[in-house]
Amino acid sequence: MKEKAVITAAITGSIHTPTMSEYLPITPQQIADEAVRAYEAGAAVCHVHARNPENGMPVPDLELMKQIITSIKSRCNIVVCITTGGGMGMSVEQRVAPVTLYKPELASFNAGSINFALFPAIPRFKEFKFPWEKQYLGMSEDFIFPNTFKSMKEYCAIFAEHGTKPEFEIYDSGMVNNVAFMIQAGYVKKPVYIQFVMGVLGGITPSSENLMFLVDYAKKQIGDFEFSVCVAGRAQFPICTQSLLIGGNCRVGLEDNLYLDRGKMAKSNAEQVAKMVRMARELGIDPATPDEARHILGLKGIDKVNY
Predict the structure, then answer these.
(1) Contact predicate 288/44, CB 8 Å
(2) pLDDT over 90 (residue 91)
(3) Fewer beta carbons within 10 Å, N or C terminal of the chain?
(4) pTM, entire model
(5) Residue 181 scores a pLDDT above 80
(6) 164: nearest Cα among 98, 73, 65
(7) What residues form DSSP beta bridges with 194?
(8) Class of the 4-113+149-304 domain?
């Protein structure tokens, strides 16, 4: 175990819809406020998506993203990790545009294509607040989240040009090979930062055995790297704790899990961060500050962003 661990808060994402939780932040102000609260609770990094403030639908709106990230930066020095995953139906150009325009310290980088299925959530709700929700979830039954080698090569060039560190999202073991290839091909330089994403239907399931396998396999394919773990659903806290036990970092937040405990919904991202901080400290691990996270992850610094 390490003495300091980076805790990330994934604020809103593009998976959960407003019907699923009244606490899901929607507007730029709500998303920024949640990021600041997560920072105050002990998060060193926040991962942000933009949503239509009228109905909560994920959107590739650069102005909304600017409102979110400038508001966060004006109030705290948390590391902002901007999504390039976006939402279903967005083009590659729309997804990577925030990196080109805002030059963040860190941005998500999905390391391969995947069936990204949300449709099993539909039967849990008799009706939805907004018409788009059911249609959006249903689309995922016939949706492949595309991240081809061509687009990943282009992403690597754009990230390098703007000094943005990729956070490689690994949904299954084959994506470890993809990252290893990109290193060998010279598209990206070591040391790399990997986030193992577990629990998405279409990717690897969350279990202690699977996490150990992914970390061991990545060590064999890549060598040394820094890693984090995020988990969709109820296994979030147990697997994130395991990550800390084996020298990793972790991500919590309403993008991944709407609950704080069994049967108890989280009222904010900060509640989940505070719980993860308590669990880490019980293990003798302190949450890294944003500046400590910058050192651990090898980031360029908040003074070099373009917002």
Answers:
(1) yes
(2) no
(3) N
(4) 0.97
(5) yes
(6) 98
(7) 168, 227
(8) alpha beta
- For residue 260, count other CB atoms closer than 10 A to its CB: 18
Q: Please report, for the chain, the start and end positions of each structural domain, with discontinuous segments joined by +.
A: 4-113+149-304
Q: Is the pLDDT of residue 87 over 80?
A: no
105-125: pLDDT as tens digits? 999 999 999 999 999 999 999
In the structure, what pLDDT confidence band is assigned to residue 31 with cuts at 50, 70 and 90?
very high
C-alpha gyration radius of the chain: 18
Please, what's the largest Cα pairwise distance for the chain?
A: 50
Q: Do 7 and 230 contact (CB within 8 A), yes or no?
A: no
Structure tokens at 289: 């500050």
